[in-house]
Amino acid sequence: MPAEMTDSSNAPIKVRADNRVYKAPLFGGALPIGLGTIRLGLRLANGRGSSPGAGWPGLIVAVLAVVVPLVWFAGGLAVRRMRAGIALENGVLSVRDRWGRLVLLTLESDVTGLHHVRIPVDGHKDRLVLTSVDDTPLVLDTRLWEEEPLRRLLGRLAAPPAQAPVRQQGMLTWPQFRARFPGAKVPWRQVHFGWFTALVVILAIAYIAFFVNLSYFV
Fold first, then answer.
1. Which of 45, 75, 117, 175 could serve as a FRET partner for 60 with CA atoms 20 to 30 Å apart?
2. Pairwise pLDDT comparison (59 vs 106), residue with the higher score
3. What string of DSSP letters covers 155-202?
4. Statement: residue 53 has pLDDT above 70
């Protein structure tokens, strides 16, 4: 397609979810995860010291204990890739979350601002808040969307007819953020990152203990 048609002010723009942020640490840890799984499986199969091994069931359970959450995680990424999206078409801006739910539907001309902010969340503080006339402010983590289509989308919103102003809000505390963008939603796990991490650690220990004991009853 010619560039002039692609860049037309009336051409629809669709932004798909980008899962590289999630996949990178998984691929980077593939070798340690694999070696750890084998070691755990052999430990459960052969036992250690005076502790008897569970035999082949121990090895199978250890493999399943790792494979099951990985499959669940991969499935979640696939669902997000298929269902999440941002679209600007025929003057209407729509945003769907990872479950395909419509979280924003507004006219392009009703967008009132693109706000770049830094907020105290999970170490990744940069967010984009999109405000409009009648809808609740929408918080976007730009790392989780395809970069080039998103850049074109934001450029379109900042240009006529929308002419949404681009504002650098800087670092905001939670009270400042809530006062400036009332109703804007940020996931609980990001707001309370410390509590979320502690909960994950506790659940991980309980999960491992469950599978270790399960291997002796298979």
1. 75
2. 106
3. HHHHSTTT-PPEEEEEE--HHHHHHHSTT----HHHHTHHHHHHHHHH
4. no
